[in-house]
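Per your request, structure below.
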């Protein structure tokens, strides 16, 4: 069972619903959080986020990562299983993010 929650109140995100990461070139990039959710079946937490760029077909680029919501500075893990991606794709489709 999924526990969907909007990102308000999550200690790991700032009030603007953004977080910063270093890209592969060492530049600091600000990413916007769309949604966080917990999957009670797997005991994992996930974050959906965007860099506010669009694909060639005009859809918002959305990324997903697993993270440990108990940590003050969680590490994002984007190596998701096929079953995790199926859940995430269903959520993205329901959010109508294009």
């Amino acid at each position: 069972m999924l526990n969907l929650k909007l990102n308000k109140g999550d200690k790991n995100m700032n009030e603007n619903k953004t977080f910063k990461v270093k890209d592969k070139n060492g530049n600091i990039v600000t990413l916007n959080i769309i949604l966080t959710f917990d999957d009670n079946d797997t005991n994992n937490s996930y974050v959906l986020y965007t860099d506010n760029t669009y694909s060639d077909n005009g859809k918002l680029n959305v990324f997903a990562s697993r993270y440990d919501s108990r940590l003050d500075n969680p590490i994002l893990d984007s190596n998701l299983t096929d079953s995790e991606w199926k859940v995430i794709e269903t959520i993205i489709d329901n959010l109508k993010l294009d």
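The first helix runs from residue 82 to 95.

Regards,
D.
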